[in-house]
């Protein structure tokens, strides 16, 4: 269902952080509510509306309604402004009115700068974007997700990072486990996932990606 958030966000042209916050709200809500209690088709739209306000990039509800009617052929996805506003109050209650979300983007840039590996920014950023297609943001601290993405990117680009990670004194077992979760996702949804990250993986052959996945995946 979060794909609906991404699709709608592309039309209303919001920042990536707004999308990430909306997806996080969606996942948080359904750790407390069932799919039968709140219609996920309306929740996705309302999460994007709420996230746009929380991230100070407000998108008007009427604009969301306009694009939903334009891009959704399924009548079940369509809604009116009053539906969004009513669901907004329900979501606020479900979220305990706590709307702050810490994302991996800021620590990612800081860590890459510290490591002197800003050339990995593009591919690492793409990896972070794709982590929102999983539940990682609900489970792991943002900086650990950022480190896992840097770890994968460094392997794909043949960057030696062992000494740098040792200096950080982080639990590499956790970093590698997160990296494996990400790679498992790519392995399961290989075609669609890598197609969505075409720019991030530009210039990297399928053979190299396969080798990197093999290297990072623990042996049985």
UniProtKB/TrEMBL annotation:
Protein's GO biological process: regulation of transcription by RNA polymerase II
Pfam families for the chain: Cyclin_N
Record keywords: Cyclin
SUPFAM superfamilies: Cyclin-like
Single GO MF descriptor: cyclin-dependent protein serine/threonine kinase regulator activity
Keyword Cytoplasm: no
Keyword NADP attributed: no
All copies of domain Cyclin-like, residue ranges: 3-93, 106-184
InterPro entries: Cyclin-like_dom (IPR013763), Cyclin-like_sf (IPR036915), Cyclin/Ssn8 (IPR043198), Cyclin_N (IPR006671)
Family statement drawn from the similarity comment of this UniProt entry: Belongs to the cyclin family.
PANTHER family: CYCLIN
Name of the protein in question: Cyclin-C1-1
Organism field: Dendrobium catenatum
Biological classification of the source: Eukaryota, Viridiplantae, Streptophyta, Embryophyta, Tracheophyta
């Amino acid at each position: 269902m979060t794909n609906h958030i991404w699709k709608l966000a592309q039309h209303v042209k919001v920042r990536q952080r707004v999308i990430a916050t909306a997806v996080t709200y969606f996942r948080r809500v359904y750790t407390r509510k069932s799919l039968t209690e709140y219609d996920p088709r309306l929740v996705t739209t309302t999460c994007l509306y709420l996230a746009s306000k929380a991230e100070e990039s407000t998108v008007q509800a009427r604009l969301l309604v306009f694009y939903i009617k334009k891009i959704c052929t399924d009548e079940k996805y369509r809604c009116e402004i009053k539906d969004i506003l009513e669901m907004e109050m329900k979501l606020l209650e479900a979220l305990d009115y706590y709307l702050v979300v810490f994302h991996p983007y800021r620590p990612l840039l800081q860590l890459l700068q510290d490591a002197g590996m800003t050339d990995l920014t593009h591919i690492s950023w793409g990896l972070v974007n794709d982590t929102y297609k999983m539940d990682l943001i609900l489970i792991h601290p943002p900086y650990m997700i950022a480190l896992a993405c840097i770890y994968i990117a460094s392997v794909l680009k043949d960057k030696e990072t062992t000494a740098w990670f040792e200096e950080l004194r982080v639990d590499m077992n956790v970093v590698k486990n997160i990296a494996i979760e990400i790679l498992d996702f790519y392995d399961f949804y290989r075609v669609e996932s890598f197609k969505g990250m075409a720019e991030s993986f530009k210039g990297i052959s399928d053979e190299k990606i396969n080798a990197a996945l093999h290297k990072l995946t623990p042996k049985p």
